[in-house]
Amino acid sequence: MHALQTYCSSDSEEDAIEHNNTRHQDHPKQVQSIHLDVGNCHPNLTHCRMDAVNPAPALPTPKVPVIRPYISKRKRGDDDMPSNNNIVKKGPLNIPPSYQSDTSNDTNVVNRLPNKVNAVYSEHKKCVNCIRWNPNQHNLLLSASMDGTIRVWNYPQCKESLLCIRNHFQAVRSALWSIDGTSILSGGFDKTLRLTDVNAGKETLLIQNNQFITALHFHPVDNNLFISGGSQGAINCWDIRSGKAIRNYIGTFGQLQDFAFLNDGSEFFSATDTVRRNSTDRALLAWDFKTGAILSNQIYQEAFTCTCLKVHPFESTLIAQSNGNYIAIFSTKRPYKLNKKKRYEGHQVSAHRIGCDFSPDGTMVITGSSDGNFYGYSYKSSNIIKKVEAYTCACVDVAFNPALYRTVATCGWDGNIKILS
Fold first, then answer.
1. What CATH number has the domain bearing residue 244?
2. Which secondary-structure segment (H or E) carries 73?
3. How far, in Å, are 63, 99, 144 from residue 237 at the CA level?
4. pLDDT tens-place string over residues 124-182
5. What residues have CB less than 8 Å from 166, skipping those under 6 apart?
6. Which pTM value belongs to this model?
7. How far apart are CA 163 and CA 407, in angstroms?
8. Total domains, the chain
């Protein structure tokens, strides 16, 4: 077209026609089109009309229907699950299934409180919400963080995490080991419940919810059942085999803070953050597990919420971490009386969700504190027998190792995990 425009702008129109006829003598149709267009050229113009050269628009190609194979509903559900690439294994994790700890129920084991910080893990980027020792392999520790990850640590062999789980899209509020120690159940602010097989590094269960998950607890006898609670106050019992809720516990209360089962699994306690005028009867409730009936709502009448619940390993005692800066003591037998003569006080809660725990032999009570210290109390006398400066921020959760008699795991608001021994 450039050559054609050049000849059209020359003084001799006939020379341009002769040149094009010579160039395109093998294509008479093209020559005729070009000749007609050249006739439309004016000697003083530098461009020609090429409307006749442009071909007619092509007709759209008809779409041929494609027959695709049928995909079952189960298969489609599996495809919607997060990719297992979000689970990174950095070392071997071969946990044999075992339903009973070899030392956690041994009354001959005498526990001691730790003296100093022995190890620090700092891979989490935000606050660590909870920590749990594996009930089977006692050297494995899990941690759940506000950065949306769950990590498994091997103490004291490794300084880095062995497993990193990133299948939650928002903060992980609660996580715990299954009874056999081979899976991790977790829930978070992405409104999902997830079960991860640690040995295989694969997510095996995904349950969608309509509320933030804030509390979880496995049934102490049946490893296939667990209860969950969330920001809207709903408590559900789930069956892992079907992935469906088999029981709902109905009540009017706020966000769930924690659960605690009796050792036989017949009853459990729930703590919520609902404390206002004429509603303190909802802060701490006792439930019948099978029927879903409220057994008592007159357990704790103080105007404080409870952030953590623990049942004594051998005695009929329940302790509750109170926002009144003390740990309250209750009986697990009806009518669940509050011990008004004894409490564990000296640490600070200050509206943080501070955790507490019993030693495996039941002789000591340990707790974190908003002042960053670790506190150890005598179970019988309620006196402070140990105080360790661990953090410059709040010490959020504590967990006594079930086998290492002088080892305690702690986590802080700064994202660090510190092992005291």
1. 2.130.10.10
2. helix 73-79
3. 50, 21, 22
4. 999 999 999 999 999 999 999 999 999 999 998 888 999 999 999 999 999 999 999 99
5. 86, 87, 88, 148, 149
6. 0.76
7. 21
8. 2
